[in-house]
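hey m, so remember when u said the tokens were messed up on ur end? i reran from scratch. heres the input so u can diff it against urs
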Amino acid sequence: MNLQQNQALIAAALTALVAFITYWKCRGEGRSAENSNREFFLAGGGLSWFYIAGSITITNLSTDQLIGMNGNQMALLAWWELAAVAGLTMLAFIFLPIYYRNNCTTVTELLEKKYGDVNIRATIATVFLLGNILIYQPIVLYSGALMMKSMFGLTVPTVLLAAVFGVAGSLYSIFGGLRAAAITDTYSGVLLLGMAMLVVFLSLAAIHWDFSGIPPERLTMLGGPDSPIPWPTLFTGILFIQMFYWSTNQTITQRAMAAPNLREAQKGVMAATAIRLLVVPAIVVIPGIVSYKLFGHLGDAAYGKIVWTVLPTWMSGIFAAAIASAVLAHFTSLLNSSATLYVCDLHEKYIDPNPNVAKLNLISNILFVILAIAIVPIYAGATSIINLVQQLNGLTSMPVLSVFLVALLFRGVDARAAICGLVAGVAFYAFATFVWAPLHYIHMIAITLFFSIGVSLSVNRLAFGNRATWRPARG
């Protein structure tokens, strides 16, 4: 048996072990017909803080983060992770209490209750669903396949590897729902974080902890005007991006809403915050910087190259298993979120209020997997995965956040006015970022948020004759 076969065998065995643990943990959990939505999509409200922390961590941290951030080969990208501490804190102490008080299954359910209009719930759910289908799901599959190819020098078509990940990941979502996704996330996360930290230390050892010869702009935490994160943006768009991503993103918040109570959910979120602060920044930038010193500019191939270089040969299979498990876990989380949005916010509201959730979950997952695999080739030419994702996020993130903030901060706003603010915000950001581009896109993200809120309140007053008033602080 040759070396690559041994590595593949180790990877397959460890990946199968994670799958077996997931099955073992889920095997005794039945599903009730009366509460199937909560069982499938909120794990029956039975996730402990440990699984919430693990699931939130790996749902965000996967190959798109490891490859994309290290692919920039500069320390500056650590700001995305450091700023996430603020986003997670807002989720724990501002947004989660509101979701729990309102007994929400999806974040968009809150909008229906605040605006008194089911159509705005469906509109935002559709925006989230399209984001998952067109951006997040195919990028996870693409980056996972790219990682495997760059680590082992494979000549297999990227889309074929992506299809393998897609089909395997869908099995967790189809048969285990959120409980399986969270358990897989957690144990995959333990393996991935451990291996990623090992890569950090081995990378530093490879250059004898000596950063000399690396251009200063790749080591600084104060980005210039042409950098991916100019330093003034730390006080504008980045904080609002974190608020949107961690506090109103269905894929993230769904994990935190699956605890037996608010206190348990907050413990899980704060544990994820500690991991984000103490562990994640190092693993998403240091290997890339070391890779620049050793090999020069490699872009998104940098992380796979450094892993292949510094890891002992016999450990490559273990790392491949960590990556494979993380891709499967992340993709499962996205699929489960997409199914939740479709079933709860669209199908039950407009087609059938009492569907067979298991069957509908199966059909929707199969469809979403096929679409994700089909879209993978579109991302093959991206210069930087992470920068592309952040730029595309801005197209809908701030307009959507404006709908949530208007709902939470004001009374007397017509849902149609909020939708007008959403549409105007998307158009404004698209023009100001992809056509005119007067400022860095992160600055434009903050401007877009306030523009969208302004349009919502103006249309509410001028077109519908309503005067918005401040809502009490408890939401």
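this time it looks ok to me. Residues 158-206 form the longest helix (49 residues). if urs says something different then somethings off w ur setup not the seq
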